[in-house]
Amino acid sequence: MAENQYDLMIVGTGPAGLTAAIYGQRLGMKAVVFGDIPGGNLYMIENLMNFPGFVGGIPGAQFGATAYTQAQGEGAFFPMARLERLTQNDSQFMGVDVNSQEYFAPTAIVACGVIPRSLDVPEADKKGIYFCSLCDGPPFRGKNATLAVIGGGSMAGQEALTLSKFADRIILIYRGEKLKMEAVMRKAVERKDGIDILLNTQVVGFQGEDQIDGIIVSTKEEENKIIPADGVFMAVGWGPNLEMLDIPAETTPEGFIKTNKKLMSSVPGLFAAGDVRDTDIRQVITACADGARAATYALQFLEKMNT
């Protein structure tokens, strides 16, 4: 048996990966879990309001840390390192982490989540563009700042509400005719003093020397209008985080892993769970459900291999 041999290899320490680790261990599998942030992107959620059992919500970071501790308590092994490469050799998956350490398992679950998208416009890589209000919003406190949030979904709404605690004015810019966020979130944003909503407004670029100081937008009435801003927070969507995957699994045109009804990819033994797979709902609760199902189906696959 190879050194660092496991029954199940899990890529990702977000809600899908941690739930998969909990279920995998409780089902009797020996699991190794890769990732260096307990809870994954959960730290970006200030208050998780729609997960059953937490009246009034729970901070995303706290939820993630608790799930991580639970998975550890079940016996899952966490190298606390990101996976550099996931490959397959015969009936074994091999994972190589950022420390060049190799791990092996006959089954694997890709649950590495998604990463925030940017805009394909001039100067979109300039200093002053951020992706996490909780991480980068606090330094603007007390500076009479004007901050812009680009996007119209629930994440954009959460970013705007969080940033309103740090800045005097928030400008929510969305290209559509109406916001796409949950009704509760939309009402909260519309009622909040200091948040201005600009609809039917397309961001076409940014301006500034060393750092962004303005957003170039276009509307039906006016082209290349400049909106002054001290910082810009992107909430324009998410893309799959699959740079480490060196296995030809079938994906959608957008890059999400295609799975069957048992969450297995086109590669036998390789499962996907959570936001990284081709799913119509990307929520914490559905990611947890995916993790539980993927671990259960991975055990079924493993048992069939051994018969």
Polypeptide structure, described:
With 307 residues, the protein is α/β, with parallel strands linked by helices. The chain has 2 domains: 177 residues, FAD/NAD(P)-binding domain (3-Layer(bba) Sandwich); 106 residues, FAD/NAD(P)-binding domain. Strands 8-15-9-10-11 form a 5-stranded parallel β-sheet. Helix 5 links the parallel strand 10 and strand 11. Helix 1 packs parallel to helix 2. It is elongated, with a radius of gyration of 21 Å. The model has no long low-confidence stretch (mean pLDDT 94).
Oligomer: single chain
- Largest sheet entry: 5 strands, parallel
Number of helices: 6
Global structural class: alpha/beta
Hey, roughly how much beta strand do the residues contain?
15-25%
CATH architecture of the largest domain: 3-Layer(bba) Sandwich
Let me know the number of strands: 17
Q: Please give the domain count.
A: 2
Assigned CATH class of the largest domain: Alpha Beta
In the predicted model, the low-confidence regions spanning at least 5 consecutive residues are none
What's the alpha carbon Rg, rounded to whole Å?
Answer: 21 Å
Distance between the termini: 18 Å
Shape: elongated
Order of helices and strands: EHEHEEEEEEHEHEHEEEEEEEH
The average pLDDT is 94
Q: What is the CATH fold-level name of the largest domain?
A: FAD/NAD(P)-binding domain
Please list the strands of the largest sheet in the order they lie side by side: 8-15-9-10-11
Helical percentage = 10-25%
**By CATH's scheme, which homologous superfamily of the largest domain applies?**
FAD/NAD(P)-binding domain
